[in-house]
């Protein structure tokens, strides 16, 4: 989710408050698709693939639609317009979730979560699904790095983020690039939500809660930096897990302390260039 926030800001210069809502609707839709798979008799080992495909399919539908109908009108506008529009999008997506799935949290239950078994590491018992999600996160980071550095479209995206006017002057179709980038940002959120759905409950306030963590990630890593999103996510995840294990009441405080330290010592973030 943080990677999607970084990508959209880096190229389109929009702070997307709706990134958490894409995560939430991805979780709901992923649960629905897996239930369809169960009814259709699809073997449990394929559920992980169903979750990934559900997030991608949702992004293919929502990304171009939202970018063309809403986001395109706030390019080059003041940040206040962008924040208001994306916050309005948060409210609209919440209403869509409420209309389609209702107000009760949606869960898959422990059966899906434990389908892949467990492993023991010393005295710890770790669900294999957790390891698969960690591996998926690393794979997504690797694919993003390959896309941005090794493909023609990725180089165009980087050039657009560096100098939009020059890219447009050289014949880059900015409308196409913006649709692709925004859809990719949506996809990173929806796939993330779908992957985590079996381990948690999908609830209406899920997106709002995770927006705070996503912005903590980008502040630590540096707004617009993809390597910063990767490192910032690791820092926030480890701090959150450590706090829960040691003293759960300090969970959010520990994250904020790291954010404050970064803002004081390196306001641009760990990987962003100072401006």
Would you give an account of this structure?
- With 275 residues, the protein is mostly helical.
- It has 2 domains: 2-204, no CATH class; 205-275, no CATH class.
- The protein has helices at 2-12, 19-39, 47-69, 79-101, 110-113, 128-150, 152-162, 164-169, 174-196, 206-221, 226-246, 251-265; strands at residues 118-121, 124-127.
- Helix 10 (206-221) runs parallel beside helix 12.
- The longest helix has 23 residues, at 47-69.
Quick summary:
With 275 residues, this protein is mainly α. It has 12 helices and 2 strands, in the order H-H-H-H-H-E-E-H-H-H-H-H-H-H. The protein has 2 domains: 2-204, no CATH class; 205-275, no CATH class.
């Amino acid at each position: 989710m943080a990677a999607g926030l970084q990508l959209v800001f880096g190229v389109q210069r929009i702070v997307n408050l709706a990134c958490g809502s894409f995560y939430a609707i991805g979780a709901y839709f992923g649960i629905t698709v897996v239930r369809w798979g169960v009814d259709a008799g699809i073997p449990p080992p394929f559920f992980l693939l169903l979750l990934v495909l559900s997030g991608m399919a949702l992004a293919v539908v929502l990304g171009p639609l939202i970018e063309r109908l809403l986001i395109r009108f706030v390019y080059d506008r003041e940040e206040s317009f962008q924040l208001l529009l994306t916050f309005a999008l948060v409210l609209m997506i919440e209403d869509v979730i409420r209309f389609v799935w209702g107000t009760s949290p949606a869960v898959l239950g422990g059966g899906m979560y434990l389908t892949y078994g467990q492993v023991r590491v010393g005295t710890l018992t770790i669900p294999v699904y957790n390891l698969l999600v960690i591996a998926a996160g690393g794979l997504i980071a690797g694919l993003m790095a390959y896309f941005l550095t090794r493909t023609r479209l990725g180089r165009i995206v980087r050039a657009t983020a560096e100098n939009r006017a020059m890219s447009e002057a050289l014949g880059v179709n900015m409308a196409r690039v913006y649709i692709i980038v925004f859809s990719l940002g949506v996809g990173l959120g929806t796939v993330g939500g779908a992957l985590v759905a079996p381990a948690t409950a999908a609830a209406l306030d899920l997106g709002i809660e995770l927006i705070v963590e996503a912005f903590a990630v980008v502040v630590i890593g540096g707004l617009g930096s993809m390597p910063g999103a990767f490192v910032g996510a690791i820092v926030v995840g480890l701090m959150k897990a450590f706090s829960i294990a040691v003293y759960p009441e300090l969970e959010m405080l520990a994250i904020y302390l790291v954010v404050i330290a970064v803002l004081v010592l390196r306001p641009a973030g760990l990987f962003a260039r100072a401006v």
